[in-house]
Amino acid sequence: MPPSCKRSIVVVSLSLLLLCISAWSLSAGASFLGFGELIDILFGSQTGITGTIVLEIRLPRILLSVLVGAGLGVSGAVIQGLFRNPLADPGLIGVSGGAALGAACVLVLGQELLAFFCLPVNLLLPIAAFAGGLLATLLVLAFSWSAMTVSVVAMLLVGLAINTMATGGIGLLTALSDQDGLRNLTFWLLGSMASADTDKVLIASAVIVPALYLLLRDASNLDCLLLGESSARTLGVPVSGLKFRLVLLSALVVGCAVAFTGIIGFVGLIVPNLLRFVVGPLHRWLLPASAVFGALILVTADLLARTLWFPRELPIGVLTSLIGAPVFIFLIALQRKKGLL
């Protein structure tokens, strides 16, 4: 079988599995719905309380999970390609922490910031998260690039420093916040889809979908960048503009994801690394596969979060961290076995 056919089968299979898990997530919950009843609700022939639960609670959660999961998966693959290191991740290099700190500032100092910027909170929150994630990414780029190469050690050290600073800033805001602010901050630290609604899905779609489209367009340029910046320039790739564009779009996606769901760790790290075993390192296959697989993981995690310990809901960030940390250790051991660490 040609490699392209194998990769196509993988992407199509993941897409079908995503549809199946999404349908199961629509049905599962406090009131389990049959397939026929679910079809009636989706096509408008049945309303009432059951219809409200499906259309206004479960469906927005699934759609937001798809958007955020796809965004985290693709941004993780892009950052790994940008740094030319499979262990790079938006969380490890401080992007998620910077975005969370920006969002936390809006949550705690919301009234003052809203009065100063004259923006509604639905706009100010993702803008602040994006600004924090972008600043963190630019700091990592500034301190890790030297003599046309990237220093992985410097990247991780700067990311550690940014994460530590973000944790300290969030801790300070926690001490200054009231009960409502503290409850909101806890949501950001643990990650959840509980606040998903139609407005947030629409805003996230307006930000994440165009950004993902632009990132997917740069897949071939990312493949050239893997050969080294000098080789990429020889092939006609505008390296400086490409790096800036990838950093900007990745920070935009991660910042928007953090703004609406909080910190969800390890998705951007694990998804591309697992897929490289199946679809290979070429980004024209890796990026779309990462989008579908990331969405699949987050929809599944949301389903487990609200059904495993019913009627309580587990934070999604806790589930992804408990699963992702052992996989991350396995990836490190695999890199060491190959002599890459």
Keywords:
single chain; 341 residues; mainly alpha; ABC transporter involved in vitamin B12 uptake, BtuC; two-stranded antiparallel ribbon; 78% helix; 1% strand
Short description:
The chain has helices at residues 3-27, 35-42, 49-83, 95-108, 110-117, 121-144, 152-176, 179-190, 198-217, 219-225, 229-234, 239-261, 267-279, 283-307, 316-337, and strands at 145-146, 149-150. With 341 residues, it is mainly alpha-helical. A hairpin with a 2-residue loop joins β1 and β2 (149-150).
Count of all domains: 1
- The radius of gyration computed from the alpha-carbon positions, rounded to a whole number of angstroms, is 20 Å
CATH class, named Mainly Alpha
Low-confidence stretches: none
Strand-residue proportion: under 5%
CATH architecture: Orthogonal Bundle
* Number of separate strands: 2
**Residues in helix, %:** over 70%
Q: Give the termini distance in whole angstroms.
A: 34 Å
Alpha-beta classification: mainly alpha
CATH fold field value: ABC transporter involved in vitamin B12 uptake, BtuC
CATH superfamily: ABC transporter involved in vitamin B12 uptake, BtuC
